């Protein structure tokens, strides 16, 4: 790895999802020096794993492509993948950041030709597909991966597969003795954009996510629509691979619930409405969707999307937090609960259940200097002078549009710090 | 510039060397491509390969570089050389990865590779290095229109970044709606409490800031120029005028509350004790927290009716949700509770999203605000008070509740200027003789609000609307990318939002405005071709003043001079090339992207004769979506026809019909245009490019008829970047179609 | 309607919710319900409820005093705590149900012949007599709660269980003679009397 140059006029952006990319690029295109860190082997984050965005039903990789092109073209941004912040100390205008860079075992010579992937045999759960699919031990995260470089799973490094991968590479790109590196970066401001993770659905015990094959999460459902994903783009029941006929979407699966996440995750209502359109597009009249909800939060001008879905005769809405799920026949499950609009008790059989799992913040403990305020929902509170700014879902549960907006604002706050430093240093 | 010297570098890595004869490619580059230098390398993108190219640039005077290797999307950083034109022949994703590795396929695969080398040489031959236009100037100064919370935030944030600001407010004071608030939600957790209104402190901060000049009772009478050099005329009510020069503009003109007189069934306009949220807020503020009816008596029971005249398809109602109203009603209901009264919120869906939202909802409940899911049917007078009749959806019954005051949570109506495209569409409809549409548009023009920015733009005076009068961006990932470069809207004029979001929005808009100034100073393009230095120019002697470029530019970048010649404004231009595609006399070009750079590529392709059974399909693919999808087709080893020759274009809007005509005349059997989705849910990064291309292509039939060719030979498609399997299929279908209708007779 | 009841109605004419908040154990939680219905759905006795908890909360807010207080619903609660475990807002629903039942009984509005109410009274009487639960007597009084005929029937049905308990020493037949009691029986009864007086005083305050 070539030397990473950072000064107290550098902005550090942590997280290469849509928020981090936005913050880094917006700052860089204002002429500022930016270091962008990403924990995984590729930038793109959660949005790269989505099939479509609501309400336009457009493809997330379309926007990512533009972001990557901006990134490739901009020499002000230095991207480090497989890099994690372990500690930040100091004050606005003068932070010291400890970064741990994990070995990729593949250097910059990699052309993504794919020979190493062909040479190895062991398979592992594919993180990009939430473990619904297997991948090789030498792999490209996805065909939208950026940097477009393979990565070698640490589990094969010492074994035969590691040696095979190295042998297969004609370009000397496989470096099995690559070591973890620790960097100390001096930066002026930090934009923290590590995003969210889906709430662990297994923790909602009555829904049986870990007991019933046909109870899945909304992010998993999203992967099913990818033609290169685990089901080849087909909406199917995991138990038997058949197309479902009667899907239940359960809202607030882990959100708005003091037993799980106290906050509303904002996106899940719209995500479910969007997913009903996938069902409609692929299965038409052969599949019904039922949305179990507390409140449908299709806020502002995208409420028309909500109304459009409501007009679909194959989509039904039930105001109810589902009480529990029990097993039925043929892999079906039974949802038990009460429709609170008029007290109607139901016991409804569905052949697939999609849990609209909430957004859990990934803001870590023990990394930030004193004075950075992290609220009870684990989001970073805005303090204009702190020099460390949460962006996207590190600041609140946000949709993509608001995350990009918020990240743009965070970039300006960071710019203000480094501009001040530059002014002081003349 | 020194004489052109083309260096062609052919990579043998990633299997290219095994699959095609690279020596032949080098010879093609030399003989046909006129490359002075043509070198093969077994691993061109590694340090040694790159150094070889760098050395040739430094020592051999190579100034046009052809990289025949992988896609332009791969190894972009390695193959980035300053000061030279670069053209990429895509032999990996575009040839060997989409063709089977079989003996039968070898010949056609080689032909593909040969052609891509020819094309890259031809392209670079007609490219020049983009140079700055000379228009640049750095103006670290913003104009902010609107002195509410959004505008004030933008002003303070810009000043904090070292920018100067002229803040224009049409009324006599700053603060806007935020200034009218009795209390607000806190900016930080815990959110379930109410905080004091701090607008006064904000106003004081603005007034005390040396970088900010406030203009009260002022409006914008004229805005001319482009990012980096806007000249804005300001006029006060008293008639005094002043000109300011700014680099970028933020329009934060806010909203007006929906007229509650349009809701008589909910008591709107019938009783002074039926009011909207803003009126309620003012009343509580005026009374220092006491809740009083119009007659001055204390109000004990207040009922809040959510979604009043909004989220409704009824004529005259607002079809959207204003987003803030649930939160606002909860806040106001808490005023009532604090004053010792009772408050009930009747809602359909309680919309308090996010972390702060749910805290607010709980906070309202803790404070004793009653919530009832229901639909209000009417509000009527009852004795001295009011009665709200509603259907309680939980108890499934029609019921009523008495109230001293009823607050209708009506929606936000954006304070935007007139939508310029209504007027332009009207001109078009009148020209086309479409009377029905013209009448409709005319009515719309007549009730349009007065202009806010008074832009002296060919395409109208104000920022285009997206929907329902909001000036929002259509893009989910790029919320600020609107159609007037360097002019950003922020706050509720853009989409319905609360004060908290307006602050975030205005801060983001401030960055974009600052970025526009910084970019304009060095001639760099704004999103999505960020950093592009190329810029359209035209040959004046050839121009017929037809004005198509000025009309079709999706960004209103081009003005007309008094003689009707186009006036390009570099910093307004997004470099999509739609003007170039529009020009019937082909006088518009970019240094590195022109009618020639593409036209010569398609002509460079070796055209087998009619009896060869080797058709040629020209694919003009949008570089934003179609081309990456084709790359990924290669990466995932989808095969497509060896007869396709793909040329990436900046946008389908940049496609000039001469390319189609040239292609057909040169013997191509089919021409395929691949752009992004058009229409209401457009995905075209240049908004209108794809749509305009579709319109142009709908008129190509005449050309085909003249040439006596089948219409099916030219097809336009809407594709997305995810059509990794579909696009190869479309190409293969075209090959099949040509097999059916036969080869073109134009192969000479 | 009792005087006390009348007084309550007067005092809280405007809001049954306020009455519940003031007089029902954990009643101040009622306002926190967001009508998701997970309590109602989670209740194992759910189908037997005329008005499930979430609906009762809505009825309280809607001022349906008579309907709520005379409902048998709250008496259906078996204290399984499923609802409390599941409530996303942390409402102590079980306790609120018991509080409402208790309050309705204090007002004399509880449904007549409601078995849970009757059993509760039997249990209370049994316990307070000696300070100890006399299981034999409690069991018998439960069997004969609805008269001699059904009592004999139930006793016969349960005889195997009873004999088994006798054999294993889990039930002492001599308890029928009065049973054991705590040391200071009269002390306990004084205490309870005092507690009752305090409660009455509270109510008296509302009567005023």
Q: Number of DSSP helices of chain A? A: 9
CATH architecture of the largest domain in chain C: Orthogonal Bundle
Structural Rg of chain C: 20 Å
**Radius of gyration of chain A over all CA atoms, rounded:** 23 Å
Please, could you describe this protein's structure?
The complex is a heterotrimer of chains A (426), B (748) and C (208). With 426 residues, chain A is an alpha/beta fold. Chain A folds into three domains: 10-101 and 180-195 and 362-425, FAD/NAD(P)-binding domain (3-Layer(bba) Sandwich), CATH 3.50.50.60; 115-168, no CATH class; 199-359, FAD/NAD(P)-binding domain (3-Layer(bba) Sandwich), CATH 3.50.50. Helices cover 23% and strands 25% of the residues of chain A. In chain A, strand 14 (246-253), helix 7 and strand 15 (288-293) form a beta-alpha-beta unit. Chain A is globular. Helix content of chain B is 32%, strand content 20%. A seven-stranded mixed sheet of chain B has the order 15-21-16-17-18-19-20. Among the domains of chain B are: 1-129, Rossmann fold; 141-254 and 452-522, 3-Layer(bba) Sandwich (FAD/NAD(P)-binding domain), CATH 3.50.50.60; 265-414, 3-Layer(bba) Sandwich (FAD/NAD(P)-binding domain); 537-589, Alpha-Beta Plaits, CATH 3.30.70.20. Chain B is of the alpha/beta class. The longest helix of chain B is centred in the C-terminal third of the chain and has 24 residues, at 499-522. With 208 residues, chain C is mainly alpha-helical. Classes of the chains: A alpha/beta (426), B alpha/beta (748), C mainly alpha (208). Chains in contact: A-B, A-C, B-C. The B-C interface holds B 342, 350, 361-362, 365-366, 368-373, 392, 394-395, 399 and C 14-15, 17, 31-32, 34-35, 54-55, 58-59, 61-62, 64, 89.
